[in-house]
Amino acid sequence: xxxxTQMEGPVTLSEEAFxxxxxxxxxxxxxSLFWYVQYPGxxxxxxxxxxxxxxxxxxxGFEATYRKETTSFHLEKGSVxxxxxxxxxxxxSHGIAGGTSYGKLTFGQGTILTVHP
Amino acid sequence: GxxxxxxxxxxxxxxxxxxxxxxxxxxxxxxxxxWYRQFPKQSLMLMATSNEGSKATYExxxxxxxxxxxxxSLTLSTLTVTSxxxxxxxxxxxxxxxxxxxxxxxxxxxxx
Lengths: 117, 112
Prior knowledge:
The structure holds 2 protein chains of 2 kinds.
Chain A: E1 3-6, E2 11-14, E3 19-21, E4 23-26, E5 32-38, E6 44-50, E7 56-59, E8 62-65, E9 75-77, E10 86-93, E11 105-107, E12 111-116
Parallel strand pairs in A: 2-12
Antiparallel strand pairs in A: 1-4, 3-9, 5-6, 5-10, 7-8, 8-9, 10-11, 10-12
Chain B: E1 4-7, E2 10-13, E3 19-25, E4 32-38, E5 44-51, E6 57-58, E7 67-73, E8 76-81, E9 90-97, E10 101-103, E11 107-111
Parallel strand pairs in B: 2-11
Antiparallel strand pairs in B: 1-3, 3-8, 4-5, 4-9, 5-6, 7-8, 9-10, 9-11
């Protein structure tokens, strides 16, 4: 079955530090890959996504590249801010548009990021 | 982008009572919605797939008689936690399928 593995947290960084959160996946075929962010007490917000190999998703200074050869989708940001403190989830969707599994997500365990001033 | 509204955001109920959580797609129609449960400091686990006009599909280990799902219209799915117990306390999140997966803001259920 599908699975997603994220690096264990929590991750604590100083403001303006470089961030990497590792994510690897197991799936057959060609899943779409996502990073979601959850701020304290809130639901999930889509941060970025990539739908095919070598695609790079980017948003708010965050980036992740779909690497099929290493089955990875690591999240990076060059300079984190205090406001980036949140829980980050890597996820995959194996369904194709119109298929019954489309929109159904398998999540990693989440990584808590805390950024100090 | 597409908006999904979940209500209530927080609810406290007594043990043995039932609680209904609503998930609405505000600006698009969603024939399929998903319900997830998130335990403290853990990931989201898919509970069930809600299909408009038909029965929900539950994941293995999820009690369908305890977690009743109704998807009566193209914009609304409800999850009812019946005879709630303290172990049902959790964060419940819905998502609606509409060109992607769009999440509601979640419902924090506390059963006392």
